[in-house]
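Internal tracking record. Fields below are filled automatically when a chain is submitted to the structure queue. Please do not edit lines marked as system-generated. If the sequence contains nonstandard residues, flag them in the REMARKS field before resubmitting.
Queue: standard
Priority: normal
Entity type: single polypeptide chain
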Amino acid sequence: MPLRHSVRIRWHLDDAIAFGPGKADLLATIRDCGSISSAARKLDMSYRRAWLLVEAMNRCFDPPLVASATGGSGGGGARLTDSGLAVLAEFEQLQQRVQALIEASRPAFERHARPALPP
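SYSTEM-GENERATED OUTPUT FOLLOWS
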């Protein structure tokens, strides 16, 4: 059985996690759904949790990553700002580059790994 790896990239600003995989998933889902509440439902997350994550991202980045409009007769919704789209794209590219580095390193680590334990 080959070795498995786990890498989670997180960008911190002061004590806050400014951006990471969970926030990237939320941004991508907001982009696709057009609202925070729809994104939260799709990700099986409470609206409050999604809103708090969006607020945290918007506090850490200038300009904010998500622009939202209050609901009502005209609807509501949310969209990624140009900055939000750029941060999301850069994070996705970063994850791909890190994955490629890990795959290139895999043979060296597997040469030294012991055989898998029987179940």
